[in-house]
Amino acid sequence: MKSYTEGDLVAVFGGEIGKDTNTADSVTLCKILIVGQKDLLVEYATSYSSTYHTVPKSICFKLFLDPKTLESSKILKPQIGDLVVALTRGLVPGESNKISGILYKVTYKLGQPDRCDVLCGTEMVSVDWNKLMVLRREKQP
Fold first, then answer.
1. What are the boundaries of each domain within the chain?
2. Which of these, 58, 50, 33, 64, lies nearest to 42 by C-alpha position?
């Protein structure tokens, strides 16, 4: 059985059980206030208020990250020739478009990457630099 301590951060699972559904695909992040024999009293903090809930340990997953990892972890910065993907907003609210291809060109503005051209098959698509994520980088010689 997992060991829990007051102050630990936990993901509390939720989902749907029904005639046509059987999922455990949502999580709520909470802080442990009190540890019981089989349950946890947790605080769920939103931007406006906090609420307290008793939840079974069996639906909780303890989260921990060494704070030094925050300082040492960096995203992979795209380079020309990388296979990249960008998720952009569509014209309809809530709609998004996924664009993937080879990073072809980067345009700089005020000393920073601003926009880029991605070769998607035979079409060149312009996207914001900050929307890119590297899917694959070929080994450099």
1. 9-70, 83-136
2. 33
What is the DSSP code (8-state) at residue 66?
Answer: -
Distance CA 126, CA 44 (A): 41
Q: E-assigned strands of 36-129?
A: 39-45, 50-56, 60-63, 83-89, 96-109, 112-120, 123-128
Q: What's the pTM value of the predicted model, to 2 decimals?
A: 0.71
Other residues' Cβ atoms within 10 Å of the Cβ of residue 132? 23
pLDDT in tens, 72-85: 999 999 999 999 99
Burial tier of 89 (Cβ tally within 10 Å: 0-12, 13-18, 19+)? exposed
Closest CA to 42 of 15, 16, 7, 14: 7
